[in-house]
DNA sequence: CTGAAAGCGCTTACAG
DNA sequence: CTGAAAGCGCTTACAG
């Protein structure tokens, strides 16, 4: 119960061996390093003293860092919470720790925290944010490159910043969803989505458009409504649809909210306006965030295999050499009660 | 673009000053430490080289660690995601990083990760789990004490393991909820909750019981149903109530699910069994987890001021001396559509 | 197989 | 105000 933490010297002393020997035992490097009796004495001493090696010293002395940096927009967001959970679980299996930073969808914050993260000298940085396009992405990319240049590994989810990347299935998932909806009989669609500057948004919209196109349906640019990835955006869009409908305008039979939250807002807004989902309009989301299955009606959506993604991300993070990898995963379309065949008119 | 990261010597060299001087400038300690021109040169060199100090070296050399350990049951859980988000935000404001570990509601895991966390030498450990009672808690407590003995600070949420603690309001929130429900006219209650071994459960049940008692209503032990904090537990309980009701048994007019998820299951199960909420039975939850407000009917629940809790936790984590603190926060009862005055019989 | 010693990148008394 | 030097707790060639 001394004021300071137990050090390796303390262990070595108690075991009656040199520092080097104690270190070798505790690092379980090669199997035949240390004589059995010495090994036993060291282990016992460590156990007895409750010794826990100082990671800082370890990292400084050259052994690989035990931490992984995880960059998300906000852990409070269900999607990122699931990603974070998967990464933390996978990391724990490898004895690694995960340090989380929130960037709040702000490129400047992202750059700043990436830089601060470098100071921690994590073994790898996993960028789970949706990334940005164009100019905003440049300083971020620069930070990532510098991290790589100093020996760190970068894993990007859903985008190809730098380093390894995992295609989480935004494009492919939206494409498959489009197929399913067309197969249900829909031909007139609208899309309500987040900011065009986000990769996630662009990927989902493009994937959806491609999927429709493969079924012979064109999605015009005017059918895509950009906003924030929030319930409110969905609700407002719903009100506009309802108004247009009341005014006798031609209205889509199916609306795709590219985030479950948007879709939830759409369902709420339409219902409130007296439009029955899915009888009059079908609504689909993306993400399969927990409440999606429990909404009324249960939300048709796309599930990304987040657990799988987390595991793969950590595996890539552990790679010490070799070429950049590009991993793909299989998204899954979940047809539930918020979509149905369109009514004849 | 050398292979290794930029070091302080590199900066000092480029600025033409000694290591010590460079260090002083970059640590912005006392304002009048270094001559202005030297200071400027150091700053410029650092900027130019993209220097970011090595935290490991810093920590080893004696400056306070920049990381906080956060122990949760599972970040995927909405409650913990919100807590984690709040802690990460607050930490970022102080330039600190948060390392998250998941314990999966398992005392052994918790002990293990607490121990591994010690190796990271974080400045503080915030234990956000609901904690355990009795024997299971002992090794956890021992780890925490050892961490404190070696100079770390411990902050416990919702329980008083060791170190500072924040009473997150489980007891008080449930107590206030009981008042509100009694004021609505209810006199017959049932409680559906998680495992009795969890502090959260015990606190909420006890608080609820006390609140009722203060309104002259007694809650018998047989009216409390223990299970898991899941939707399924709620659903099953609902089925039992429905069966009892169909059999003509006396049934409570109001059921309190001590977790929103349980309450959601209760509402779902009751509705499915043809019992209308709140007309026939009122249901209340606890937590105000995001979907709560958007359920149909919207769920009456208790909101804990998680943002506030996160901020206070980080403040306590930063305390370097002084007595243990016990912080209290103000939970809020949110009366929504899932509760109403009981129907006369 | 084992130990003495150098070195990782910083900070901080201690001299000047 | 500034610099040379010791030391933080480890790991790892290098000798033995």
From TrEMBL, chains A, B:
<dbReference type="GO" id="GO:0000976">
    <property type="term" value="F:transcription cis-regulatory region binding"/>
</dbReference>
<dbReference type="Pfam" id="PF00356">
    <property type="entry name" value="LacI"/>
</dbReference>
<keyword id="KW-0238">DNA-binding</keyword>
<dbReference type="InterPro" id="IPR028082">
    <property type="entry name" value="Peripla_BP_I"/>
</dbReference>
<protein>
    <submittedName>
        <fullName>LacI family transcriptional regulator</fullName>
    </submittedName>
</protein>
<keyword id="KW-0804">Transcription</keyword>
<keyword id="KW-0805">Transcription regulation</keyword>
<dbReference type="InterPro" id="IPR000843">
    <property type="entry name" value="HTH_LacI"/>
</dbReference>
<dbReference type="Pfam" id="PF13377">
    <property type="entry name" value="Peripla_BP_3"/>
</dbReference>
<dbReference type="InterPro" id="IPR010982">
    <property type="entry name" value="Lambda_DNA-bd_dom_sf"/>
</dbReference>
<dbReference type="InterPro" id="IPR046335">
    <property type="entry name" value="LacI/GalR-like_sensor"/>
</dbReference>
<dbReference type="GO" id="GO:0003700">
    <property type="term" value="F:DNA-binding transcription factor activity"/>
</dbReference>
<feature type="domain" description="HTH lacI-type">
    <location>
        <begin position="6"/>
        <end position="62"/>
    </location>
</feature>
